[in-house]
UniProtKB/TrEMBL annotation:
<dbReference type="InterPro" id="IPR004453">
    <property type="entry name" value="QueG"/>
</dbReference>
<keyword id="KW-0004">4Fe-4S</keyword>
<dbReference type="GO" id="GO:0046872">
    <property type="term" value="F:metal ion binding"/>
</dbReference>
<feature type="domain" description="4Fe-4S ferredoxin-type">
    <location>
        <begin position="143"/>
        <end position="174"/>
    </location>
</feature>
<keyword id="KW-0411">Iron-sulfur</keyword>
<dbReference type="InterPro" id="IPR017900">
    <property type="entry name" value="4Fe4S_Fe_S_CS"/>
</dbReference>
<dbReference type="GO" id="GO:0008616">
    <property type="term" value="P:tRNA queuosine(34) biosynthetic process"/>
</dbReference>
<dbReference type="GO" id="GO:0051539">
    <property type="term" value="F:4 iron, 4 sulfur cluster binding"/>
</dbReference>
<dbReference type="GO" id="GO:0052693">
    <property type="term" value="F:epoxyqueuosine reductase activity"/>
</dbReference>
<keyword id="KW-0408">Iron</keyword>
<protein>
    <recommendedName>
        <fullName>4Fe-4S ferredoxin-type domain-containing protein</fullName>
    </recommendedName>
</protein>
<dbReference type="InterPro" id="IPR017896">
    <property type="entry name" value="4Fe4S_Fe-S-bd"/>
</dbReference>
<dbReference type="Pfam" id="PF13484">
    <property type="entry name" value="Fer4_16"/>
</dbReference>
<keyword id="KW-0479">Metal-binding</keyword>
């Protein structure tokens, strides 16, 4: 019988928790509540935990949240497990579209935070979750429901509520998705008033995790050199997005999506040298890249005008 935990650890996971299959509350678009719909006859739900460390970016360079590369690693671990199980004659399927936060809470080792992220003492909130369904027997029982219970660290803490730039957090472990910077559409223009909030971030927002006491023991690390190189705004504005795909995934690494986000970052960083490229994008590309590039041009020119004509 395959030792799924040992193999997952060899692949880079920190833990695997095997629970009996159960229907989960699915409130997020695209999620599936019943594992039976993904693997009929599944006997176990294997929750895979892949921790990561935040990246330490300079304020004057484009950035990507470390979650995205970690998520790609987690997907690779899950797929390798599925292939190994199937090779051993065991039914298996990757199930990233199950609601994994409720599954983590059912494991009994995680707790919900005010920032709407599940956390664990050893990882803080910086980890990604994957799930593999299989015909193996589960090794653990689900914990009693913990609905409404927040992490003990959250009892007297409001740091994430104060720090969220757009007021997306409700404070009870739920959020307003339409206000979360990370959830903004990649296929439609971002509201103009919210574009400056993205700062130098091409993908993701780490503010509520950065201020969370559950992550106080962690240290940021240098991002991979290849990722820094792939984040060249000049290259991205010319449609050279494919080097980003290994870090953020094929769904996010699409020409117009990346170009539109690169335009916003260029505007927020006041990159005057990119004005010719931004004008080309504004004139020739489809939405949302076109609108974002036009906004970036105006933002840079306004800033340039203030420098040329300072008050007083």
């Amino acid at each position: 019988m395959m030792d799924i935990v040992s193999y997952a650890l060899e692949l880079g996971a920190a833990d695997v928790i095997s629970l009996p299959p159960r229907a989960l509350e699915a409130n997020w678009p695209g999620t599936v509540s019943d594992p039976e719909a993904l693997l009929p006859g599944a006997r176990a739900m294997h929750l895979i935990v892949v921790p990561y460390q935040a990246f330490e970016w300079r304020a004057d360079e484009p950035s990507v949240n470390a979650f995205y590369p970690a998520y790609q690693r987690g997907r690779a671990v899950a797929q390798a497990l599925v292939e190994a199980l199937r090779a051993g004659g065991i039914p298996a399927a990757s199930a990233p579209n199950l609601p994994l936060k409720p599954l983590a809470l059912a494991a009994g080792r995680f707790s919900m935070g005010r920032n709407c992220l599940v956390g664990a003492r050893e990882y803080g909130t910086r980890f990604t979750l994957q799930c593999v369904l299989s015909g193996l027997e589960p090794t653990e029982e689900a914990a009693p429901p913990a609905r409404g219970r927040l992490s003990r660290e959250c009892a007297r803490c409001r740091a994430c509520l104060r720090a969220c730039p757009n007021g997306a957090l409700n404070g009870d472990g739920t959020m307003q998705p339409e206000r979360c910077l990370r959830n903004f559409s990649y296929t439609e223009p971002i509201p103009e008033s919210m574009r400056p909030m993205l700062g130098n971030s091409l993908y993701g927002c780490d503010i509520c995790q950065r201020v969370c006491p559950r992550n106080a023991h962690q240290r940021a690390v240098e991002p991979p050199a290849a990722l820094r190189e792939a984040l060249s705004l000049a290259a991205l504005l010319q449609g050279e997005y494919k080097p980003l795909a290994p870090f953020i995934g094929a769904n996010y690494a699409r020409r117009n999506r990346v170009m539109g986000r690169a335009a916003l970052v260029a505007g927020n960083l006041r990159q005057k040298s990119l004005l010719p490229l931004l004008r080309q994008v504004a004139e020739n590309e489809a939405p949302p890249a076109r609108e974002h590039a036009a906004w970036a041009v105006q933002r840079i020119l306004r800033d340039e005008g203030r420098e040329a004509h300072p008050e007083g």
